[in-house]
Amino acid sequence: MTGDRQSGRLLGAQIAGHYQAEVAKRIDIFATALFHNMTVDALSELDLSYTPPLSSPWDPVQMSAQAWSKQGFPCIVQ
Length: 78
Description:
It is a single chain. This protein is mainly alpha-helical. It has helices at about 25-35, 40-45, 60-70; strands at about 1-5, 10. It has one domain (about 1-70). Helices cover about 40% and strands about 5% of the residues.
């Protein structure tokens, strides 16, 4: 993902993964954020659903937004 350094706005995202990685859910999150001109910080604060015994409370979308906020340039989260 990448964003504008001055405004903090999300500018784009690219996702690659296998079927079970829930790529469609994650690209929908980015698409919604882009449609609503969200900032990267707002994206990292979203309250997204998760299943505690099966996943982390932090979605990879949020982790990438947090990494971008710290680094301020296009970042990769695996």
